[in-house]
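Closing statement on the iron/sulfur cluster sub-project.
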Amino acid sequence: MDAVREKTEGTAGGFQCVRCGNCCKWPGYVRIGIEETAQIAAVLGMAVQSFTDEYTMLTSDRRGLSLKENDNGQCIFYEEPPGCRIEPVKPLQCRNFPVKWNFAGWEKECGGSGTGQIK
Ligand code: SF4
């Protein structure tokens, strides 16, 4: 099920990522494009088709792919420290949170909220 993925609140309090990993633990799609699919597969040393079969799913609107999530809702590529297993090529959706998109109440969940200079 897709969680709310819209920019509903600003980042006026500032933001700087502190690698708390909370954004990787929320259930919801992590959408990936064709280029991202190829980049992630390459980093994992997998053929694109194998990566797609093992780690992605079709979104409910059938318009694209999302990374799979674990039973607890966290991203399939998140693991307790060190965190994201595909950090060098993590999807744009991950890199854009919370400045370019977020959701109501994100500040309570994000460890970097109110700690930085990015508005
Ligand atoms: S791809 Fe990486 S940064 Fe994005 S949600 Fe998954 S673990 Fe987190």
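Helices lie at 22-25, 34-44, 48-55, 92-96, 106-109. With this model delivered, the sub-project is considered complete and its resources will be redirected to Aim 3.
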